[in-house]
Amino acid sequence: MSATKTLFDKVWDSHVVHKIQDGPDVLFIDRHMVHEVTSPVAFLGIKNRNIPVLHPEKTFATADHNTPTINQHLPVADPLSANQLKMLEENANEYGISYWGLGHAKNGIVHVVGPEYGITQPGATIVCGDSHTSTHGAFGAIAFGIGTSEVEMVLATQCIMQPKPKRMRININGKMSKGVTPKDVALFIISQLTTSGATGYFVEYAGDIFRDMSMEGRMTVCNLSIEMGARGGMIAPDEKTFEYVKDREFTPKGADWDKAMAYWETLYTDEDAIFDKELTFDGSLIEPMITYGTNPGMGMGISNDIPMANAVQGGATTYQKSLKYMDFNEGDSMMGKPIDFVFLGSCTNGRIEDFRAFTSIVKGRRKADNVTAWLVPGSHKVETAIKEEGILDILTESGFELREPGCSACLAMNDDKVPAGKLAVSTSNRNFEGRQGPGSRTLLASPLVAAAAAVTGKVTDPRELMEEMVVN
Amino acid sequence: MAYDKFDILTSTAVPLPIENVDTDQIIPARFLKATERVGFGDNLFRDWRYNQDNTLKEDFVLNQDKFSGKILVGGKNFGSGSSREHAAWAVYDYGFRCVVSSFFADIFRGNCLNIGVLPVQVSAEFLQKIFDAVEADPSTELEINLQEQKITLLPTGESESFDINDYKKNNMLNGFDDIDYLLNIKKDIETFAENTPL
User: Which first-to-last residue range defines the signal peptide (chain B) (predicted)?
Assistant: First the structure.
């Protein structure tokens, strides 16, 4: 038998503490991130059992889901939110866990700050009580979201119990066309697989299109793995990865770096390794994408028409219910639909590259009067870069304001709620009914599509504005 | 947290024949602000159950008196989206002990198993039979036998077997949770931790 292994097998197998016959594997966790919403009941659990946190140095806490994005220097007004934030701080202090709360220089969205400070490393197992933990797979880590019972397990034992997922590889070669971003590549894949097409699998993304992406772009792609049902997605680390990781606060230094590199350089899929499922797409055919329904699988090229119910996978009743909620009709074109809100941010598209892309379109133009725009950096580090690179000046000149870091309108736990019936173009990850506020309607798209909508006040193909820029 | 033992459940069912029911529908994010596991059932399917002025949406299944029971039957890809265990807590707190569907999202399924709600995956055909039977006669009872891994439509006796791994089955039959198991092998974990590269 051949000993060839996939990247996923290499990392998973090296973290199995114990295998249970006809049961899950006991998986050792290298890095655990916690936030205010999914951790309080887990801390309560270990308190009730009267057991300590086994490895507090492997757990990192930040406040992000339930924080305001203006006036962060003032006390949080909502008493329930304030209490949740206070609980996280108290728990972190009690158990000796690093805590980057509201106002802390390192505060930001958990999946943005993890990589920024080198907590995220190749070949690591990383979990967090948040489904978009898959983001960290961009570094060749096995990273996935867990429930609160599992958060408690990791606090208590640094392990969780998981059946090993099956392996899927998604190969995309070719170059991204003009106006196409990593977000579009991900929305394209999800539109092909549907929101359940990768359930039960862990995905490896392979091919030129991912190799050519920046680390930020790879994070966007891996972030959205959960939206096709996959527990996580990963990309083999390469020079770009090592360059990004090097010299960050929590990455190994000196001899430890050399030791880590010796491990990291083994992290690739062996040539003959077998996947349970393998899919291949032509990257040059991917267009700027937009969603039209109430799950991330309901997406299409921005210039297409909304598919007819009989042309889509799944039940017609559910499909029509979804379009009814969106107030769209089968066969409608999305282009030109007037919009009310634009949200740039989230763990999907709240990084510096996303703000650069957004700014490339709005530069020299004005925010449309009918649009409310929320521009929310993923972290203070991103916020600082926005200011230092002069991006803030361009945004201000174009009539936009920058808010303070947090998850914000992605899940609308704080006050950043899109009102009922209003239509938002959002760079976030979910367009579920009411996700951005009760009754809100969401179109998921890239920062370029969001920018084009923000300056025209309607759904617009960003390529049209990019052409104008060349002409000018 | 240890939970109730699950052996045989005989109950009427609540049908929700919609696909891709996501965890934001099961419990919207604005109801995740509690710091204890209490009261989530009140907000189960909040925005499908209530109008924005908090009046009931009469046509939603949870608001129809004829449907009740400890079994929730949902369409394909039930529980997709967020990892919030609050969704499973809301299902449990409302009074359900079992969710039946033809396909479950991964994290939701795991969360249910971790708190003692049994996810039962059946074929699309059997799911349709359940929907048809329950909608035709809401007093239709289902029997879920965990030991035998069998779900039966009692009026007709039609049944199907379902999968669950032996470890989780044993946990549910006895009300054990994973932390009990992990604490028992803590020595192995500590030895392992000393040899990890990162």
Answer: none
Distance CA B104, CA B74 (A): 9
Measured between CA atoms, how close is B120 to chain A, in angstroms? 16
Count of CB atoms within 10 A of residue A248's CB? 16
CB contact under 8 A, B83 and A158: no
Q: Which residues of B touch A31 (CB under 8 A)?
A: 198
CB B97 within 8 A of CB B40: no
Q: Provide the chain A residues 304-323 that lie in CB contact (below 8 A) with chain B.
A: 314-315, 317-318, 321
Q: Does A250 touch chain B (CB under 8 A)?
A: no
Mean pLDDT by 10 residues, chain B (198 residues): 86 97 97 94 97 95 98 98 97 98 97 97 98 98 98 98 97 94 95 88
Domains delineated in chain A: 7-277 (3.30.499.10), 292-471 (3.30.499.10)
Helix axes A79-95 and A40-49, enclosed angle (nearest 10): 50
Task: Confirm or reject CATH 2.20.25.90 for domain B8-194, answering yes or no.
Answer: no
Is the minimum CB–CB distance between A338 and chain B shorter than 8 Å? no
- Quickly count: other Cβ atoms within 10 Å of residue B64's Cβ: 12
Residue in the block written with tokens 């490895």: A55
User: What's residue B58's pLDDT?
Assistant: 96
Q: Is the CB of residue B127 less than 8 Å from the CB of residue B102?
A: yes
Domain ranges of chain B: 8-194
User: What would the two tokens of residue B101 be?
Assistant: 């569907």
DSSP A340-355: -EEEE-HHHH-SHHHH
Strands B8-16 and B141-145: antiparallel
Q: Render pLDDT for B127-143 as a digit per residue (tens, 0 to 9).
A: 999 999 999 999 999 99
Q: What is the ipTM of this complex?
A: 0.97
Quote the pLDDT of residue A319.
96
Q: Give CA B68 to chain center in angstroms.
A: 15
Question: What global pTM score does this model have?
Answer: 0.97
pLDDT of B2 reads 62
Q: Which residues contact A327 (CB under 8 A, 6 or more apart)?
A: A421, A441
Which ranges of chain A have pLDDT less than 50? 1, 469-472
**Which three-class secondary structure state does DSSP give residue B27?**
coil
